[in-house]
Predict the 3D structure of the following.
Amino acid sequence: MNRHLELLDAIRRCDRCAAVLPQPPRPILQWHPAARLLIAGQAPGRVAQASGIPFDDVSGERLRDWLGLDRATFYDPEQVAILPMGFCFPGSGRNGDLPPRPECADAWRERCLAQLPRRRLTLAIGRHAQRWHLPGTARPLTEVVRDWRAYGPGLLPLPHPSPRNALWLRRNPWFESELLPELRRRVAAVLAAGD
């Protein structure tokens, strides 16, 4: 078994957070060393936890639209890696899902990223992913996303595509008019690259 499959197997057997999760652990990720695009999200939601498929909900539909990708491409692990900050559904709180469990990133993130040698673009979706992928970034999400040009060609911060963020999207029309065309351009270029 190669290193990638050994690590994937270890992640899928992980039970570090079992005592604090609302349901038995079910790590949900999509990952292959050939992937050139990394989607760094928060944690699976309730629907993804039930199906075992990342972004298998309305948020996923919106995200695929933002990226300009069909389902087949989005769910091809040799093209798109989906590594949330927490691999299991953390439970629900008063204002939506709880934050991802920190034990997950501590245990697995560096090891997974080290086995993505062809990664050319990282999409840091939401505050938790942005704080990890942009160390020292403690500014509000809107400021981080608004400064998307400052992070170079290999990283784009995004808000979560949840329907809960519809008001944010209305208040920030620059996201759709300025960032989305660049997001689609970069995603298409990265996935078309032959390197």
Notes: Strands lie at 37-40, 80-82, 92-93, 96-97, 121-125, 155-158. The chain has one domain: 3-192. The domain at 3-192 is CATH 3.40.470.10 (Uracil-DNA Glycosylase, subunit E).
